[in-house]
């Protein structure tokens, strides 16, 4: 953070076990300062970053999060001591801090505002960020990133390579494939956890696995059954995956009984030759006797599809199958817990590919009137006054002219035009000319204003404009929440000062431009003035009410 | 329903080419003002409207103020058209500032239209005089029959069911003028089409008569005696085309405008062409036309081989031979393609391209096959007195954009025929 | 809130939808007499129909108690003029308008004066919904406002839908405003600069709670595909 300054409540620890001295840690670009709450305490720190020669990460998780454990060489007493600073829990985590810093780094506009208002002391850090909660929402920022998914090729069909001379076949196995096998086949996954390395080596495990696969590919159910009977471990791979079967049964129970599976019967592509699948499901004759050793193509396909759609759930180094397997267990447990919903959400998000999504800033304003009553309640006070005026006016006109008479005159006008015809000329030529000239003038002036060749002065005004919006936003938020926020008058008046300063700035901008453009600039500046005026007006009114009632008041007048 | 359309561009060019006096005369007729206003580009319409109530001139600069950068060309087109038609008159003052004002006659006519509405041209005859008038449907049928018969005759005289009374000389003019457009579904009156109607008639009179005719009410009877002699002559030709139906009563005779006539002024705006297409072309060069019209069939026959004819469907194939036939008749591949595109069936019209690309490309290629030899009328010069003269002549021909070929050894030069005259002058000067 | 993106039009064919405020209380206090106002508006409607034979116009009168269609060019086809004084369009429209005013007056006598607040609320929702719908279907709403203050609703409506908001400075030149700005077809609008309101006055929305006359004139344009494209012009 090039322009940043962070103030945090913190504890100063000389060792991990030290309960620590509570105080305030202030970090600027160049140095950090620690002031203990108890002014008599001696543990003060004033270290310039330039002096920090290295840092050691404390082992304690909490302390590790803290910005740094620094080894410092300086004239202070603590210089060579191992020191740790930790933030109290309600404070920001490092991750959040980093996020904010990143945001500021990425957005120079934001940085400018931050410098002006937070460093300038107008707003506190939390006030500044309160209006930008959206930016801080990590979930929205991070999770929408597209992830690399699984390949959709059938990993279960990993083809053995035969060298042709000997009777040996070779299976190629990569960490990626191992991971995928774990995901696809919970039974294999389970077996791996149970057997490796306690009962067999990893190599033996995979050899057995692929032997089973090879047997499957021969499609000789009798041989399969025979082999399975001989080798208990091999049988694990050859049998139907119990975990999957259990899940499947659970799913079947949840299927809407009205669903007509028969209807989809004709929708297969198996009659097409070379349809990209190595196996041909129609040729898989089933022998009831050995059914448990047969895997149908549709089962494999379904499982593959489910896994690919679900995507990666484990984010660890794939090199070590043991870690992968364990991580997978963890992620499965998560799944069983209440995270299921979140995962489902993620699933739906992932099918929505980021690149293809339409931009979030939709050109349309959302058709959402949350509750018009809110709007009206807020407006009521102001409206009432005008309403009264309008009523008075109406009453007045009613006195002067009853509604009957009004209708009467309206009807007279209509019959008048019916007998007289349209006025000819429609518009007097001189009026028409002056109207057209007026409009043209309006056009040429607004053209400049929109102009691509905007003068610097206008840019300046725009610059100030963002500043105003910033203070204004915060001001408004206080204004409407004064009682709940328990904001002191000092804070509000500080804001007010900042705003009046921008007011002056606006005036200066207006004065500084050449007279030709002054009109245009003032057109631009006027709405800002109006907004500021309104804000001050409300503030003053509020102030008065409060002083008269002696208590803080909600913003609504 | 076929549409007789005046091609707005050609027609308005023709109007614009009228001498100033005649144009001003034309504008004394309110209908013509209306028809011409409608024919203008959108921006030009807006300019007329916004100056309708203003007496004096408006500076060009102030008009320009309203135009955004990408509208500059549209603005220029609009103002040019207005100037051509003398709806705008341009004045340049001492400061060299250009300004425009509206043609006063045009202006007051439009104002009148807005304020007091339009007066119908001529009163229709009361039903007591006329015998039973044809119903609107009957009139439509009559108009279509006449028009199709005429078109069929133009395309293929043997196909016409009954001999039409259109004279052969008339046919010839039409074949020259109209035939280039014949593969368009909506036949159009082109400038040369007008030449036929012309026959010694003042074009301004003709234009105003045609436009006036278009403002008559369809199906009403109008007395022929209200027409001038020339108009009476013209209206007979128009009856042959189905634009009007002539009827004879005991004493009076009258004409009944058909839809073809009343749509004439509408056709001035190009945006009115919203007809339904009927042709589907497949990538295998097969063509399906959902139409009952004999005319459509004949039009398709111009460039394709008709294979089956069902009550409401024509199946045809585009072949090399059929296309060569069309090319020989002077129809270009572009014309055929644009015909197919314009008349694409709504189902395929949404697609881009509406006609398969392989078909259009092949059609262009076949056409290009025929055009390997280009003929340019030319003159050959030889026996130059000196090399200087020869080289000068070559240079002269190049500058005049008429140079075709030279043989510097034998000092021979071939130039385009159009610069022959200049070349001769040049050579006689250089002697 | 961003202004709506505009659609591209290949031609200048328009469907114009005009809302006329015929609130008698407003017109009895207006500086521009109602008959003059009608004269300007009728000439404007005529000119729209004159510009392109495919143009269509529909007019809705909004009275004190009710509103109703008073003209639809797709229904009345008669050309020419009636009793020699004005185009047939005008006499048809005026006839309907007169009937409408009588009906509206009748309603006024029947109905009691109910509270303003409730109608205010429903009015707000209805107007905002109309505006957002127009924005969705890319129908610009033009507003021509003749009242003394600016109308925040109409300003917002025009701003949101990409239409024009105009408050004529010289009401006696109304036709000139209408023909210069509001008659501009949507095709031409893509390359013309029309008056832009400089910054919508946000404070104004607080003042806008009167129920009295806010005559609008709305205008819609129709493209080939029949998607309505409202332009709203208002006038009081």
Automatic annotation (TrEMBL), chain A:
PANTHER family: TRANSCRIPTION INITIATION FACTOR IIH-RELATED. SMART domains: BSD. The lineage of its organism: Eukaryota, Viridiplantae, Streptophyta, Embryophyta, Tracheophyta. GO terms for biological process: DNA-templated transcription; nucleotide-excision repair. This is BSD domain-containing protein. Residues 79-140, 165-217 form the BSD domain. InterPro entries: BSD_dom, BSD_dom_sf, Tfb1/GTF2H1. GO terms for cellular component: transcription factor TFIIH core complex. It comes from the Eukaryota. SUPFAM superfamilies: BSD domain-like (SSF140383). It comes from Morus notabilis. It holds the Pfam family BSD.
From TrEMBL, chain B:
One of its GO terms (cellular component) is transcription factor TFIIH holo complex. Gene3D superfamilies: 3.30.70.2610. It comes from the Eukaryota. Residues 361-427 form the Transcription factor Tfb2 C-terminal domain. It is found in: Nucleus. The keyword Coiled coil does not apply. GO terms for molecular function: ATPase activator activity; double-stranded DNA binding. The keyword DNA repair applies. Pfam families: Tfb2 (PF03849), Tfb2_C (PF18307). GO terms for biological process: nucleotide-excision repair. Keywords: DNA damage, DNA repair, Nucleus, Transcription, Transcription regulation. Its main location: nucleus. Component of the general transcription and DNA repair factor IIH (TFIIH) core complex which is involved in general and transcription-coupled nucleotide excision repair (NER) of damaged DNA. PANTHER family: GENERAL TRANSCRIPTION FACTOR IIH SUBUNIT 4, TFIIH, POLYPEPTIDE 4. Belongs to the TFB2 family. This is RNA polymerase II transcription factor B subunit 2. It comes from Morus notabilis. The lineage of its organism: Eukaryota, Viridiplantae, Streptophyta, Embryophyta, Tracheophyta.
Automatic annotation (TrEMBL), chain C:
Its main location: nucleus. It holds the Pfam family Tfb4. Keywords: DNA damage, DNA repair, Metal-binding, Nucleus, Transcription, Transcription regulation, Zinc, Zinc-finger. Residues 203-227 have a biased composition (Basic and acidic residues). GO terms for biological process: nucleotide-excision repair; regulation of DNA-templated transcription. GO terms for cellular component: transcription factor TFIIH core complex; transcription factor TFIIH holo complex. GO terms for molecular function: zinc ion binding. Residues 203-236 are annotated as: Disordered. It is found in: Nucleus. Component of the 7-subunit TFIIH core complex composed of XPB, XPD, TFB1/GTF2H1, GTF2H2/P44, TFB4/GTF2H3, TFB2/GTF2H4 and TFB5/GTF2H5, which is active in NER. The core complex associates with the 3-subunit CDK-activating kinase (CAK) module composed of CYCH1/cyclin H1, CDKD and MAT1/At4g30820 to form the 10-subunit holoenzyme (holo-TFIIH) active in transcription. Component of the general transcription and DNA repair factor IIH (TFIIH) core complex, which is involved in general and transcription-coupled nucleotide excision repair (NER) of damaged DNA and, when complexed to CAK, in RNA transcription by RNA polymerase II. In NER, TFIIH acts by opening DNA around the lesion to allow the excision of the damaged oligonucleotide and its replacement by a new DNA fragment. In transcription, TFIIH has an essential role in transcription initiation. Belongs to the TFB4 family. This is General transcription and DNA repair factor IIH subunit TFB4. It comes from Morus notabilis. The lineage of its organism: Eukaryota, Viridiplantae, Streptophyta, Embryophyta, Tracheophyta.
């Amino acid at each position: 953070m090039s322009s940043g300054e962070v103030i945090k409540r913190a504890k100063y620890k000389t060792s991990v076990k030290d309960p620590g001295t509570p105080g305030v840690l202030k970090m600027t670009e160049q140095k950090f300062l620690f002031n203990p709450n108890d002014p008599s305490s001696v543990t003060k720190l004033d270290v310039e970053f330039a002096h920090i020669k290295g840092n050691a990460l404390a082992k304690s998780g909490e302390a590790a999060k803290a910005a740094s454990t620094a080894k410092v060489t300086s004239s202070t007493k603590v210089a060579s001591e191992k020191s740790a600073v930790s933030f109290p829990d309600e404070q920001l985590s490092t991750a959040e801090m980093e996020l904010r810093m990143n945001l500021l780094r990425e957005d120079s506009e934001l940085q400018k505002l931050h410098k002006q208002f937070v460093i300038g002391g107008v707003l506190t850090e939390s006030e500044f960020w309160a209006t930008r909660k959206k930016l801080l929402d990590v979930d929205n920022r991070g999770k929408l990133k597209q992830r690399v998914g699984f390949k959709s090729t059938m990993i279960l069909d990993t083809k053995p390579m035969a060298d042709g001379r000997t009777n040996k076949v070779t299976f190629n196995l990569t960490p990626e494939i191992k991971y995928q096998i774990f995901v696809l086949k919970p039974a294999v996954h389970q077996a791996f956890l149970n057997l490796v390395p306690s009962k067999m080596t990893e190599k033996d495990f995979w050899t057995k696995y692929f032997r089973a696969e090879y047997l499957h590919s021969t499609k000789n159910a009798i041989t399969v059954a025979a082999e399975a009977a001989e080798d208990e471990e091999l049988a694990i791979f050859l049998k139907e995956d119990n975990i999957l079967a259990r899940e499947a049964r659970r799913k079947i129970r949840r299927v809407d009984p009205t669903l007509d599976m028969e209807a989809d019967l004709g929708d297969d592509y198996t009659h097409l030759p070379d349809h990209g699948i190595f196996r041909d499901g129609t040729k898989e004759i089933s022998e009831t006797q050995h059914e448990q050793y047969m895997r149908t193509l549709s089962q494999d396909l379904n499982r593959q599809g489910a896994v690919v759609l679900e995507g990666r759930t484990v984010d660890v180094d794939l090199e070590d199958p043991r870690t992968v397997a364990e991580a997978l267990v963890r992620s499965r447990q998560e799944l069983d817990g209440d995270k299921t919903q979140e995962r489902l959400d993620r699933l739906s998000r992932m099918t929505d590919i980021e690149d293809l999504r339409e931009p979030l800033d939709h050109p349309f304003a959302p058709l959402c009137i949350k509750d018009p009553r809110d709007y009206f309640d807020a407006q009521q006070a102001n409206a009432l006054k005008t309403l009264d005026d309008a009523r008075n006016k109406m009453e007045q006109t009613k006195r002067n002219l009853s509604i009957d008479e009004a209708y009467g005159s309206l009807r007279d006008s209509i019959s008048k035009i019916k007998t007289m015809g349209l006025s000819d000329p429609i518009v007097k030529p001189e009026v028409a000319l002056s109207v057209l000239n007026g409009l043209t003038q309006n056009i040429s002036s607004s053209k400049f204003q929109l102009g691509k060749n905007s003068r610097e002065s206008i840019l300046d005004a725009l610059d100030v404009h963002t500043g105003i919006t910033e203070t204004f936003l915060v001001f408004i938020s206080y204004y409407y929440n004064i009682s709940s926020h328990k904001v002191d008058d000092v804070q509000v008046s500080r804001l007010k000062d900042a705003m009046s300063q921008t007011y002056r700035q606006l005036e200066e901008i207006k004065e500084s431009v050449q007279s030709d453009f002054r009109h245009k600039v003032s057109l631009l500046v006027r709405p800002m003035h109006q907004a500021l005026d309104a804000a001050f007006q409300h503030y003053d009114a509020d102030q008065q009410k409060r002083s008269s009632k002696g208590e803080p008041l909600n913003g609504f007048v | 329903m076929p549409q007789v359309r005046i091609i707005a561009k050609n027609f308005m060019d023709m109007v614009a080419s009228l001498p100033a006096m005649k144009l001003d005369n034309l504008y004394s007729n309110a209908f013509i003002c209306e028809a011409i206003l409608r024919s203008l580009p959108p921006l030009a319409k807006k300019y007329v409207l916004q100056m309708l109530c203003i007496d004096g001139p408006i500076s060009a600069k102030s008009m320009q103020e309203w135009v955004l950068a990408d509208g500059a060309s549209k603005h220029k087109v609009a103002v040019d058209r207005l100037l051509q038609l003398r709806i705008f008159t341009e004045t340049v003052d001492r400061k060299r500032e250009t300004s425009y004002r509206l043609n006063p006659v045009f202006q007051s006519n439009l104002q009148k239209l807005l304020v007091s509405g339009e007066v119908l041209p001529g009163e229709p005859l009361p039903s007591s005089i006329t015998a039973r008038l044809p119903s609107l449907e009957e009139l439509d049928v009559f108009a279509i029959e006449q028009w199709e018969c005429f078109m069929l005759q133009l395309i293929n005289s043997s196909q016409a069911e009954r001999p039409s009374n259109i004279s052969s000389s008339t046919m010839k003019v039409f074949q020259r003028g109209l035939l280039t457009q014949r593969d368009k579904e909506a036949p159009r009156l082109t400038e040369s089409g007008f030449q036929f109607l012309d026959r010694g008639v003042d074009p301004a009179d003709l234009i105003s008569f045609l436009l006036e005719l278009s403002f008559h009410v369809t199906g009403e009877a109008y007395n022929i005696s209200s027409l001038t002699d020339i108009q009476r002559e013209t209206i007979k030709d128009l009856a042959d085309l189905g634009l009007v139906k002539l009827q004879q009563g005991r004493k009076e005779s009258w004409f009944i405008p058909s839809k073809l006539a009343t749509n004439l002024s509408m056709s001035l705006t190009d945006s009115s062409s919203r007809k339904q297409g009927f042709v589907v072309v497949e990538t295998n060069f097969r063509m399906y036309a959902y139409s009952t019209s004999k005319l459509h069939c004949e039009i398709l026959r111009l460039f394709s081989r008709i294979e089956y004819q069902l009550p409401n469907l024509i199946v045809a194939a585009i072949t090399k031979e059929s296309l060569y036939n069309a090319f020989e008749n002077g129809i270009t591949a572009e014309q055929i393609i644009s015909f197919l595109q314009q008349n694409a069936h709504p189902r395929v019209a949404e697609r881009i391209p509406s006609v398969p690309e392989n078909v259009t490309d092949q059609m262009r290629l076949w056409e290009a096959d025929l055009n390997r030899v280009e003929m340019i009328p030319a003159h050959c010069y030889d026996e130059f007195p000196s090399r200087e003269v020869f080289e000068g002549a070559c240079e002269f021909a190049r500058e005049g954009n008429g140079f075709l070929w030279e043989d510097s050894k034998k000092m021979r030069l071939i130039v385009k025929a159009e610069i022959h005259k200049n070349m001769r002058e040049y050579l006689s000067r250089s002697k | 809130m961003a202004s709506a993106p505009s659609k591209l039009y290949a031609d200048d064919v328009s469907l114009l939808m005009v809302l006329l405020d015929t609130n008698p209380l407003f017109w009895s206090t207006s500086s521009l007499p109602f008959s003059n106002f009608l004269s300007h508006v009728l000439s404007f409607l005529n000119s729209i129909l004159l510009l392109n034979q495919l143009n269509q116009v529909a007019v809705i009168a909004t009275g004190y108690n009710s509103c109703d269609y008073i003209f639809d060019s797709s229904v009345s086809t008669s050309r020419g003029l009636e009793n020699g004084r004005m185009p047939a369009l005008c006499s048809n429209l005026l006839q309907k308008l007169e009937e409408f005013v009588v009906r509206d007056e009748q309603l006024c006598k029947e109905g009691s004066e109910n509270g303003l607040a409730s109608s205010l609320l429903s009015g707000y929702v209805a107007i905002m919904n109309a505006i957002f719908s127009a924005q969705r279907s890319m129908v610009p709403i033009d507003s021509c406002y003749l009242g003394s203050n600016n109308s925040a609703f109409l300003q917002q409506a025009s701003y949101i839908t990409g239409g024009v908001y105009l408050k004529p400075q010289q009401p006696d030149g109304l036709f000139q405003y209408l023909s210069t700005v509001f008659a501009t077809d949507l095709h031409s609008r893509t390359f013309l600069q029309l008056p832009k309101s400089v910054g919508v006055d946000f404070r104004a929305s607080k003042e806008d709670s009167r129920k009295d006359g806010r005559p609008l004139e709305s205008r819609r344009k129709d493209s080939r595909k029949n998607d309505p494209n409202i332009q709203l012009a208002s006038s009081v």
